[in-house]
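Holo prediction — pyridoxal-5'-phosphate.
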Amino acid sequence: MQIKRNILLNPGPATTTDSVKLAQVVPDICPREKEFAGLMKGLRNDLLKVVHAPADQYTAVLFCGSGTINIDICLNSLLPEGKKVLVINNGAYNTRAVEVCQMYHLPHIDLKSSVFERPDMALVEKTLQENGDIAMVYCCHHETGTGVLNPIREIGALAHKYGAIFVSDTTSSLGMIPLDVIKDNVDFCMASAQKGLMAMSGLSFIIGREDIIRASKNYPTRSYYTNLYLQYEYFEKTGEMHFTPPVQTIYATIQALKEYFAEGEEAKFARHHRVYEAIHRGIDKLGFETVIDPKIESGLVVSVKYPDDPNWDFEKVHDYCFERGFTIYPGKISTSNTFRLCALGAIDEPDIVAFFESFTEALDTFKIKHR
Ligand SMILES: *Cc1c(COP(=O)(O)O)cnc(C)c1O
């Protein structure tokens, strides 16, 4: 079977291999069969390995949903009565966590700072010192809205120093930037299958400390479908998801994990970095500007400023590239006009070179100035 290969430069879902796509074509199976529970057991174990989580301390809990379900679950399930969440907020995805806190009426502090910079650690510490009731510190690892990589190891250390747990949204870094939950002081991390693992959308997972999940049995419950303890307990009892799992996505994820381990953590990291550097080179060559200091970039997302040219039209350039198999994506910075080029997925340097050929053609077609 010949499947058209599209190069997705959006921040997920990412370009997948044909073998991952085809892994979804399987005989029909009822997910309540033992055979399927066995597959999920292996999958959960492999997820622990991706983040170097010791199996006697951490567990992986699967959910059917997009990545945002994990943010919702961690916040609504892991906050004890009378305690507060500290959200370290330097971008759109941390703001999403603040919105979840607002929806559930969770006591929280929204420690907002510039989206162009890393958080001010002295201020984080001061906030923890002054608020003894903070039980959870929350921060994105890679803020996908801008491409800023946050210092989670330091944030986690501070959280622990003040007796709080550390929850990190690692949706757009897990499986791409090496993560070690013990060394990085992460109690809970999360992702969806369609980003770093290069599988399909529909499956999300939380990897976290089992003792804390067990303790959360006695925390206030704020949701039925998205309660972490309930799902964990069901997995423990039956090996299955409480409700219908995304069956075909699970087959794809199992194949994607095989390919992840075959490529290797360091080699995959290096490949994404090659792609990122090729993106920067292409942008520089055209004389376009980026908005984030490369020193604090994740190496996975590049936020590019709209050129100062009345002929620039993101939609037109997008459509031109899209027709040629390349997808570019709008920015998420409210104060400046940007678009994003991302280094996720099963792509490599030659794909970026090919992309810039189409992109340059688009600029010339619409008479947009470039170097
Ligand atoms: C993609 C992403 C999510 C989840 O987004 P969905 O659209 O729900 O899949 C959450 N956090 C971060 C940092 C992300 O990049």
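READOUT: Residues 265-286 form the longest helix (22 residues).
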